[in-house]
Amino acid sequence: MTDLQWQKSTYSPDSSNCVYVAASPDGTIHLRESDAPDVTLTTGPRQLQALITALRRTS
Questions:
Q1: DSSP letter at 58?
Q2: Coil, helix or strand for 6?
Q3: The model's pTM
Q4: Which one of 2, 15, 22, 38 is most buried, by most CB atoms within 10 A?
Q5: Inter-CA distances, 35 with 17, 19, 25, 57, Å
Q6: pLDDT of 11-57, one tens digit each?
């Protein structure tokens, strides 16, 4: 696997509760949490956008 360039979410204010996101060259989106950096979730851009849109509607 290509080395991913992880970025901390701007909505993760402190260093102990951070969400990180990275994109693979093929467009796959990877998500991980700072407490378990070896565990990652993968999704596509459209699916992630749908999740973010749904979460914004509920907040």
A1: H
A2: coil
A3: 0.78
A4: 22
A5: 7, 9, 26, 27
A6: 766 666 788 999 999 999 999 998 888 999 999 999 999 998 998 99
Residues in the chain, total: 59
- C-alpha 53/C-alpha 50 separation (Å) is 5
User: Taking Cα atoms as reference points, which of 30, 26, 25, 28 lies closest to residue 7?
Assistant: 30
27 close to 33: Cβ distance less than 8 angstroms: no
Tell me how far the alpha carbon of residue 48 is from its chain's centroid.
Answer: 9
